Amino acid sequence: MPTAHTLAVLVVDDHASIRGLTRHGLSQIGVSDVVEAANGTEALAALGQKRFDLVIADWTMDGMDGLDLLARLRANPIIGRTPFILLTARNDADSVRTAIAAGVNNYIVKPFDVPTLRSKIEAVLGPLA
Amino acid sequence: MADTLFTPFFNDGIPTTDDDTPSGPMQQYVSFTVGGSEFAVDILAIREFKRWTETTPLPNTPPYVRGVINLRGVVVPIYDLRARFGQGPTQPTATHVIMMVAVSERTVGLLVDAVDDVLTVPQSALSAVPETDSTASHPFLQAVLTIDERMIAVLGLERLFSGEVVPPLPLGPSPVSRQSP
Amino acid sequence: MSELDRLRRTFFDECEELLASLQDSVTALAAPDAGGQHAAAVAAAFRAAHSIKGGAGAFGSGILVEVAHLTETVLDAIRSGRMAPSDALVGTLLRAGDALADCVSADRDGVPPPENPPVLAELRRLLGTPADSTPPAAPANTLPDFPVIRADTAPVPPAPPAAPPPRVWTIDFAPNAKALAAGHQPLLVLRALKALGPLQTVCDSSHIPPLDALELTESYLRWTLSLTTDIAPEVVAEPFAFVAPLCPPQITANDGSRIGFDPLGVGSLLTTDSPAPVQEVDPTPLPEPVSPETDPPLDPVRPWAGPQQAASSIRVDVERIDRLVNMVGELVITQAMLAQQAQGLAEDRFPMLFQGLEDLASHTRELQESVMAIRAQPVKSAFARLPRLVRETAQALGKRARLILIGEETEVDKSVVEGLSDPLMHLIRNAIDHGIEPPEERRAAGKPEDGTITVLAEHRSGRIVIQVSDDGAGINLAAIKRKAIEQGLLPRGADPSDDELYELMFHPGFSTVELISNISGRGVGMDVVRANVNALGGRILVRSYKGRGTAFALTLPLTLAVMDGMLLQAGDETYVLPIANILESLQPAADAIHHLVGRGPVLSVRGQYTPMVDLARMFGHRSDPCDPTRALVVLCEAEDGGKVALVVDSLIGQQQVVIKSLERNYGHCEGISAATILGDGRVALILDVAGLRLLAARRHRREGDDPHG
After folding, report:
1. What is the ipTM for the molecules in this complex?
2. Is C272 touching A (CB cutoff 8 A)?
3. What is the dotted CATH code of the domain comprising C3-127?
4. Is residue B110 included in any domain, yes or no?
5. Any idea where the Response regulatory domain is (chain A) (predicted)?
């Protein structure tokens, strides 16, 4: 069973406010090891520097978007299995379909509350101690 | 920790990274063995691991070019690192591993004896390649990693295949000039 | 200030930037769409509105979300072509931006935002949405936790009044390597199911191979689960939501109910925030809710209703066609693999199998031809610029020329058409520049003052032949010879054949004063023409008659994706020789083979001497010389017309092969043009006959008649 305080989470969003909000939500459920990246390129660099238990990334970003980042991540046999939760305001069926087909492990629709964040993370990593 | 966040294969060797070390940003490498020596490459360059499989030889190429294989419909060249390091060709067995790596825009396979570990190290563990005679013969070494008194050579993949840095090697009985890959 | 207040401030700062970007982009829409910048502007505006909406839900007021949402929806409609950016529309969008700015500053200043800005009604009218139907601003997740929901329960109880009796669900779950590689954990799925009721698990571990065959990334376990629960089917399906597209489970109940997953694991109960009227005109509407009466429970196949209108053509993205071409290529390989596997079987014991394989082969071939036909285009587009080119070039040189185009409708693969344009223009320029004489010269020679250039395209034995001919002076072979000797390309006193002199024209760097002019600029550049044609897998031939004219013939494959090849054995290796290169195969008599010092062995066929190349030896697969009178000799003609006699161990058979690039991941390999994948999955190399000839010639020159040659 994963314990929240040992989890390392990478949060990727091109808006500092959303990154901050996600970090804040994570801290509420006991996750303190959070690294922020402002775009896909920064996220990839971070993934090369440290092992993460989870990536939470925005979909719509300039340049490399969330699903591009996911494809790059999954292409790596070692870190490619890192669970990936997409964070997006898109909740139409086609978007969800596209994201699932791309291989996201779960999907959070903005705006989200802390219980939702927790349940989505638990769905991917197992119950948090 | 989650039950299996990683390929179990690599689980044992991963140093924890929970605390930011004072020695600067961390970097991850994958280490592997070739002819008894340990080498490492940047984790982000790696695409796939594959068991050794017979190759189709490319005619009139240096001994370190083992030939090509079919990787899900794409033709990919396999390089014998042991031969590349001047230690003679590998006699591959079923336990030898091909590391598929991305170099510039290409995908190539590197034949190695074994893949060992994922190393998460601070920048301070990296040092320049010592200036010795072997530097000239191994221009594809990018840096040296020192971990617990072990010395691990970090390969610069671009240099491994760049015709400008790597001197042309003797090609055996019928030397034929060929373009560098 | 609390952390949330700080984040809220950050958000409003970001909104300033986003609003500026929105305004810039919308303003750009008012200008005419010159370089296609509208698409980029709409995308940028959409991103801005989307980001505002995303953050506003967490930080801002409901009205901010609503305006941002409607703005985003309008922009999405523009992006997908359902609305056109008229001046009125741009005006509305700008007003929407202003309203957003008002909301942001009100929120920031802590005053109540404008309650019902007029632009809301405007946006709703545009979208045809009733005032109260805008769905967003949901406080929490508007997405159901389980996007996988289509439960086709056998007797559908419409909203059961009481708790339904518990069902026993049997779930067959086989997580595959793909699912594991995507970070899914089967254990979590099992745990989630266990939370729904008593769960019995049976693990089938019989697929685990012996240790030395164990692939670390493979998945060998499968589970048969038995879950007893009265919970709704959608909830039972929920743990599989994200893993179902990769490895769909089979879920059935003891009362005959079953849970189906559509190919992407998404069902029909999803909420959507797209207003209904927009959906109706969406070219790819969401699937309708599936009702058990009209659809079978699994893999519903809906009959193709036929086109709405009698359309004679459709526009298709080239990328889609290329994907189709690739898939057909893979199918050709699979078909070859099956055929090879069946070879060891007794045909009389499996007549149906062999009949099936035969049909598969012919259908595959037919499918492949049909798919390639989609990519086929008339060569007309490569000819289109030629009339003007002839007119302008002739005028600039003070010559008179007319152009005759024949066979413009001849079809060939799109990529070949595209690659033809440059070499054709080069050849035409050369024809006018060096072929056609000035009018007075022509008159003196008794020819009409107008020179004639003919460009002819036709299909000939599975290839396309393009011929560019002129009725000019012909190529001055003496000038070529003189210049070649001056440049050291020919030894003094050499006596080259006409063919060898033509060949010199294609030598890189070869130029003669007679052949350089302002029009051609860089000299003749015939080496470039040949390189272009070779890159298309073609060859170029020249024939010229003094005083009567010159003809260049380009023969090209109809497609670049597949070709007919002859599989042959050299040493232990299998190679592919393009059928187009093969003239004949023979077993020569000993007296037909001669050894010329410095040129290696040559084969005499009907009085012509052709250099012999022992393939296995030249490629280093064998060191002993092979007795050609016991092996097989394949007489080949290269793209440049040069011949070579290949000594091989045996011919395996003719096969259609899919061309795979060797250059993409490796680079050029001398004597090899590309690679292919055989039926057994191994790579075989495709021989480049012209390259082999050069390789052999160089080796013999360097080594004399050394036995290692």
Report:
1. 0.84
2. yes
3. 1.20.120.160
4. yes
5. 8-125
